[in-house]
Amino acid sequence: MLAEFPATRRKASVDTIRSRGGLRRLRGMSAPADVSANLVAATDIHALARACVKCGLCLPHCPTYRISGNEADSPRGRIALAEALAAGIELGADATRHLDQCLSCGVCERVCPSSVRYLDLLVATRQRGRAAVAESWRRRALRSLVQHPQRFASLIGVARYLPGRLGRALRRSRRPGPVAACPVLADATVAPTAILLLSGCTGAALETSVLQAAQSLLTQAGYAVQVAPAQCCGALARHACAADAAAQSGQALLALVGQHQVGQHQVDACTAVVAGCAGRYRTLLAAAGLPGYRDVLCLLAERLERLRFGASSETVALQLPCTQVGDGAAINATRRLLAAVPGLRVVELPSQGRCCGGAGSWYLDHPELADALLQPALAELAMIAPSRLLSSNIGCRLRLATALDVPVQHPLQLLLEQCQP
């Protein structure tokens, strides 16, 4: 059932802001003098906001706007709220709550004709107004744990028994069993490209079998694979606007990758099995001048001729995470690889590109909205009746596993099962 929003939450909508003098006047105002120097300057927020031409093309693509119909829950409305907050206008907790309800899925950026850097604007604005919206203990705990992957892995067994959504998702994730290696074919004609497989923060705790599948398939495709120790990239912290924690994790990741650029350990590219962190990896590695990030499915598709798969009579559903929809190369690679399995029937969810309501740790604080966003996918899956659901993002898999009785896996796991000499 779609969540209902009380009328009181509309008082900080764009209409309210306009009644106080409009956006033009807001741009001419300065931020309060006591704003902390470590926060993004108000002038930068205004500069980012000016790129928006208020065309509204993003509105039908925004998950929260589709549910509430409230302008303040749309990218255009949130940009107006961001400008007001940067101008020093006190809008109250209701206004900042509209900002906090954004999933940061980035779909609006992909459809924006003006190339508005909405996510940068949102993060900057949330940092300035973070005190108005308290982060729940659940999100703080999860964010703290993933910054220490070894601690996260050791506590994950206990966390499975927590009440509520987080515990249920972890219980449904199922501990992976041993994974057989894909048979490797020697071929001296294939260039020995060195790949660093980043384990991420969830690898040791939740994705051991996926990492093993990636290593085995990449080796079969002729890559020389090195597996990096678990290390958080800071994406979850940045999503929660914990800038210092995000920067600390990012620097630790760069130091880890840098260690693999010494002597005989140099790598040509980095990859990972978590689609939701791909953007973060690309940004960090490019800025540091380190080997670039390549999607693992793209790497495999480039050498598809070296992979042989046995036949399957299954019907599987494919969910493309909203974070992956803007990456056409990764989507095409996923389709090509699955199409290479003889007899496998792959049905993509009609609602591709729409967030399932996971959004990192967002769903822990917004359960009603998250449930409303999940319903279209569940209805489609009921019609498809697949033997399993495939998704390349751990957040989406955990989220969907709470509501499904069929296995929810990474595409790599199915590909490894069907891999033949």
Word description of this protein:
The protein is globular. Helix 3 runs antiparallel to helix 5 and helix 11 crosses helix 21. Helix 21 links the parallel strand 7 and strand 8. A four-stranded parallel β-sheet has the order 6-5-7-8. The chain has a three-stranded parallel β-sheet with strand order 2-1-3, with helices on one face. By secondary structure, the protein is of the alpha/beta class. Among the domains are: 126 residues, Fumarate Reductase Iron-sulfur Protein, Chain B, domain 2, CATH 1.10.1060; 116 residues, Rossmann fold.
SSE topology sketch:
Layout (H helix, E strand, L loop, with lengths): L13 H6 L2 H6 L14 H9 L12 H6 L6 H12 L5 H9 L6 H5 L6 H12 L7 H10 L2 H11 L4 H10 L20 E5 L4 H4 L1 H13 L3 E4 L7 H5 L3 H17 L9 E4 L5 H11 L7 H7 L5 E2 L5 E5 L8 H12 L5 E4 L13 H4 L1 H18 L3 E4 L2 H8 L6 E2 L1 H8 E2 L1
Parallel strand pairs: 1-2, 1-3, 5-6, 5-7, 7-8
Antiparallel strand pairs: 4-9
Helix pairs in contact: 3-5, 3-8, 5-8, 11-21, 13-22, 17-18
Using brief descriptors, characterize the structure shown.
single chain; 3-stranded parallel beta sheet; globular; Rossmann fold; Fumarate Reductase Iron-sulfur Protein, Chain B, domain 2; 4-stranded parallel beta sheet; 421 residues; alpha/beta
